[in-house]
Amino acid sequence: MNNTEKSGDKTPRDDTTEELPLKTEAKNAVQNLTFIEKIKFIKSNVTVEPVLALFVMPSVLAMLATQNLNLEKACRVNLDFGDEACTALRLRKRANYTYEEEEVQKLIASVLAWRSVVHTAVPTLLMLFIGAWSDKTGKRKICMLMPIFGEFMTCLLNMLNTYFFYQIPVEWTVLMEVIFPALTGGWYTMFLGTFSYLGDITSKDTRTFRMGILNLCMTVGFPIGMGLSGILLRYLGYYGVFSISAALQFINFCYVLFVIDDHTWLENKDKVKRTGFGGFFLEFFDFQSLKHTVEIAFKKGPNNRRLRICLVLTVVCLTFGPMWGEMSVIYIFTRYRFNWDEVKYSIFSTYSLVTHSVGTLFSISVFSKKLKADDAVLGINFYQQQDMWSTRICLRKE
Predict the structure, then answer these.
(1) Which of 36, 38, 97, 121 registers the highest number of CB atoms within 10 A of its CB?
(2) Contact 165, 73 (CB under 8 A)
């Protein structure tokens, strides 16, 4: 019996959906379906998978255009190097403008330093409360709507920054670019909402597979967005890229708002319900709930549970910290070191992401499943390869 049935909800549900555990009979029934019926079955079980794909793709699509916009503003507005020099840098004809390129890169690097702090620190503080609040109330939908709204507003503000190009310096452009994703939780809140929602509606038999599909949707969104970004930027310009990204985020917002339904099983639990904005504020910023969550996460357990959790958190920080840091500067690095334009960089990024995905699939299927290699061994191999790749890129001259 699932949680909905425990709460006394008598609303009839489709037996083919994931909200009820799939028994052996159900699996056999699925195998006997026709092709059209299987398509309908898949459609009835698709929930948050399109949400993550539609969130990642336009976000990555706008990323390259945003970086180019910042470089243009640094050159033309802040440093005032003139149209001839800035146009030559944009066209990657920098033979006589190496000084200008270096100064633009220095300014952008200093701006990206505090941008990264805002982009990560604010969502981290928000996640401490929104995670506990979402678990307590069972509301995952808002965790998906908030970051989508933040990315949508960022696209609109980027179009505003493009229109008032010479009136807004690069510092304000970057602040307007990062403020909404930071205040709405950004990618972190989206991951929290989608993966938690999928965990709520799936059974033990199907959860791992559905989580894998959700990860695949995220992985697919990266190369599609990055592969199209350079080409669209060259032929459609800033307005075209930001408009497409905003339109996709708006479609995604409507899909979550009208198609995705929050589970209501927690609403019937015996608990004190607070009403009004004040009640919501007290319920959201509940330090007792936050304390309880931390105590559960770090409580003692068998097999050195607390130590293992601390080590896993350390590994996550050491993994995603350098990854996000590299992503923020890799484009300006390739411009400076290899004299790449946006199209060459998008091709390189797409190739890198596709190769990484194929390598991950090979590693999981061969080393993990067939050779039964330990997860720790796979992790060590990953970090060795990552160190070799980063060192080679860093030392490469052309």
Answers:
(1) 97
(2) yes
**Nearest-CA neighbor of 139 among 189, 68, 207?**
189
Short-list 368, 361, 341, CA closest to 220: 361
Q: How far is it, in rounded angstroms, from Cα 210 to Cα 330?
A: 32
Report the first-to-last Cα separation within the chain, whole angstroms.
62
Place of tokens 């408009």: 243
292/287 Cα distance (integer angstroms): 8
Distance CA 150, CA 173 (A): 15
pLDDT per residue as tens, the chain (398 positions): 444 444 444 444 444 444 444 344 445 555 666 767 667 766 667 889 899 999 999 999 999 999 999 999 999 999 999 999 999 988 888 888 889 999 999 999 899 889 988 988 888 888 888 888 888 888 899 999 999 999 999 999 999 999 999 999 999 999 999 999 999 999 989 999 999 898 888 887 777 778 878 887 887 888 888 889 999 999 999 999 999 999 999 999 999 999 998 776 555 554 556 666 666 677 777 777 777 777 777 788 788 888 888 888 888 788 777 777 777 788 888 888 888 888 888 888 888 878 877 877 777 677 766 777 776 777 777 777 777 777 777 777 66
Report the b/e string of 355-392 with b at 16+ CB within 10 A: eeeeeeeebeeebeeeeeeeeeeeeeeeeeeeeeeeee
Instruction: List domains and CATH numbers for the chain.
Output: 47-395 (1.20.1250)
CA dist 267 and 256 (Å) reads: 20
H helices of the chain, in order, are 3-6, 24-31, 35-45, 49-73, 83-90, 98-137, 141-163, 170-183, 186-201, 204-258, 276-284, 287-297, 305-338, 342-362, 375-395
CA distance linking residue 249 with residue 186, whole number of Å: 13
